UniProtKB/TrEMBL annotation:
This is Molybdopterin biosynthesis protein MoeB. PROSITE patterns: RHODANESE_3. It comes from Shimia thalassica. One of its GO terms (molecular function) is thiosulfate-cyanide sulfurtransferase activity. It comes from the Bacteria. PANTHER family: THIOSULFATE SULFURTRANSFERASE PSPE, THIOSULFATE SULFURTRANSFERASE RDL2, MITOCHONDRIAL-RELATED.
Length: 128
């Protein structure tokens, strides 16, 4: 049996998750109403920059960092604020949000279009 194409997985995930427009994410981040989480690889952050105020949580550690029972739990995830994930182009973030919803995480969304679109439209970016 062939594997399900990633485009299909992403499309199915996006039907089941909340996606916030970038301008809304900017407003919510500025007002402190969300925790913005960058799930890109550290090499992407060093190469392309980062969104000021976003917390870096590599995709491979999300479940470990969000689970309060995990020895790797991070306090940034123990919040009543909405968690808003993003990656470069909103593919990994869609799959990550769907997976976190499936394990019981509530009050979670992804940022539309990802970091590439954020940077392209001239929104704030920090570089090393």
């Amino acid at each position: 049996m062939p594997i399900t194409p990633v485009k299909t997985l992403v499309a199915e995930a996006k039907e089941q998750i909340e996606t916030l427009p970038q301008t809304e994410v900017e407003t919510l981040l500025a007002s402190g109403e969300i925790v913005l989480i960058d799930i890109r690889d550290i090499r992407e952050l060093k190469r392309d920059g980062r969104i000021p105020g976003a917390i870096h949580a590599p995709r491979g550690m999300l479940e470990f960092w969000i689970d309060p029972e995990s020895p790797y739990h991070k306090p940034d995830f123990a919040t009543d604020k909405k968690l808003v994930l993003f990656c470069a182009s909103a593919w990994r973030s869609a799959l990550a949000v769907k997976n976190l919803q499936d394990i019981g995480v509530e009050n979670i969304a992804e940022m539309a279009d990802g970091f590439s679109a954020w940077k392209s439209r001239g929104a704030a970016v920090e570089t090393d």
